[in-house]
Amino acid sequence: MTGAAGTGPAGGHGFTVPVLQLGDVLLVTLQGELHDGMAEQLQQDVTDRISHTRVTGVVIDISGVEIVDSFLGRVLAEIAAGADLLAARTVLAGMRPAVAITLVELGLTLPGLRTALDVERAMELLGAASRQGEGSP
Amino acid sequence: MSVSVSDENAEQEPAAQQVSAFLERRREQIAQRWADAALFRTVFTVSRDEAVEAGRAVAAALAAVAAAGRPDDIRASGFEAVRDQLGRMAASRARTGADADRIADEVAALREPVTDLLRAEFPDPYAPEAQECVVALTVLMGTLRLVVMETAVSASEELIARQREQLHEVATPVIKLWESTVAVPLIGTLDSARSQVVMESLLNAIVAERARYAILDITGVPTVDSLVAQHLMKTVAAARLMGAECIVSGIRPAIAQTIVHLGIDLGTVLTRGSLADALAYALSRQGVGIGPVAAAEAALTADAGAR
Amino acid sequence: MMRAARHAAPATLPIGSDADLAWVRQQVRQTAAELGFGLVQQTKLVTAASELARNTLVHGGGGQVRIIPLDSGPSRGLRLSFVDTGPGIRDLEQAMTDGYTSGGGLGLGMSGSKRLVHEFEVDTRPGEGTTVTVTAWATAVPPSRPGS
């Protein structure tokens, strides 16, 4: 069971995927090499966290991810679908241009997934960002 | 030097060595004469000194090739030193409109002044020894001609490839139209290579400008077939993965007809008639109003946006 | 022609675990970068390598990948050969179809990777194994000048 400030355990090298709770949003930050086992563990962790904390949104920050293949793509789509069932909306944030081009060429357009340029925009999309800074500058 | 071997190849050796020594010894005179030859004169129009300098370098390279005993080898390492220079010269001639035959003739014309100088080295310019050296020089100059032609061909291939790439980049400027709104006005045919460049530039602009809306304006694209449509949809999908909404604008009536006729499904791609309409849409979505068009758009999107 | 010797030499890596997949991705990216592949090209090739290496692991019961830099001609490329001695692919045409899956993935492994490389070749024998060989070429001419 993961604690309040806990992180999801991960397989292999002792890397962990940080899962932070900010108000009613879970912020998941993926970085660098993600082993298949870690990705599957993460899916489990996020789903557990949503059901225990009753957050209403999940932001997955992939700005630090260099490649997304069909396996990781499927995991991300399933996290979002699982979150939806638990009444939390998921936003995928910060995909790099090279990754986006590759995914489209691969045939993986993740149609059901909400996307945002970065975490800030994702928060804004979820309506969870502090209201004072609304709109564009 | 006399050699007592009857083998033809072996006899060429000392001739090549003699030619090499001659090229070294008379380098300055050769360079001076070449500077007046068509090839050097037309390339180095600004300064004769430059032409002489270039001539010295070529003569030195030929001397090295001859010294190595490889007068007929276009891969001889002696040529490496002047390969770039020869390539630039040939390219420069090509730019001023000389075709390959003409350039080849101009290189061939470099032989005569050197041959004259070489013959003058011998008391009897038509003695067998002199003839041998002239033959060796002729072979060497023929090889130089091949090297120039080969260098010219690969230089122009590289030039074409580079220009093609630059053309792609030049032909696809990404413009920031407003805060958070970028646009690419596409002009000309959209092939696979070009659509890759478009996609990359647009996505990079989305990051750089923190764009929420990206407009692909195809007013200047002559035809839209299923392949072009596919490229457009890929670009739209990639932009969406990065969190930006893509709008395709400028679908002329004829193109709309074709799209329908070919049964191309643009799916969920958002389209607008003109770039102005697309911009108005993007602005109204961001709460910026600009006159009656925007008001109408705002009303429309307000309806559509009511969940 | 005289060309400086490259440090990118052919290499063979095992594919037997999750960690091996990660190592294959890293090595392919590094080699592609050394050969002058652009960022997008690198990403495409590494993604294809990830898909195919996972196929080798999941469907072929493990195997190996041979990483072969190609830099003899005017253009530079990278060839990857994924070899397993697993059950082979019974219906290749079906395996190459978008959406077909036998392993619980999205069914884009084979067909998708084919779109990410320039050359794609499958040699499979039922009961003996499968070899998938892909080749990607770096753009013939590097960008004219950095920053322009």
UniProtKB/TrEMBL annotation, chain A:
<dbReference type="InterPro" id="IPR036513">
    <property type="entry name" value="STAS_dom_sf"/>
</dbReference>
<feature type="domain" description="STAS">
    <location>
        <begin position="15"/>
        <end position="126"/>
    </location>
</feature>
<dbReference type="Pfam" id="PF01740">
    <property type="entry name" value="STAS"/>
</dbReference>
<protein>
    <submittedName>
        <fullName>Anti-anti-sigma factor</fullName>
    </submittedName>
</protein>
<dbReference type="InterPro" id="IPR002645">
    <property type="entry name" value="STAS_dom"/>
</dbReference>
<dbReference type="InterPro" id="IPR051932">
    <property type="entry name" value="Bact_StressResp_Reg"/>
</dbReference>
UniProtKB/TrEMBL annotation, chain B:
<dbReference type="InterPro" id="IPR051932">
    <property type="entry name" value="Bact_StressResp_Reg"/>
</dbReference>
<keyword id="KW-0597">Phosphoprotein</keyword>
<feature type="domain" description="STAS">
    <location>
        <begin position="171"/>
        <end position="282"/>
    </location>
</feature>
<dbReference type="Pfam" id="PF01740">
    <property type="entry name" value="STAS"/>
</dbReference>
<dbReference type="InterPro" id="IPR002645">
    <property type="entry name" value="STAS_dom"/>
</dbReference>
<protein>
    <recommendedName>
        <fullName>STAS domain-containing protein</fullName>
    </recommendedName>
</protein>
<dbReference type="InterPro" id="IPR036513">
    <property type="entry name" value="STAS_dom_sf"/>
</dbReference>
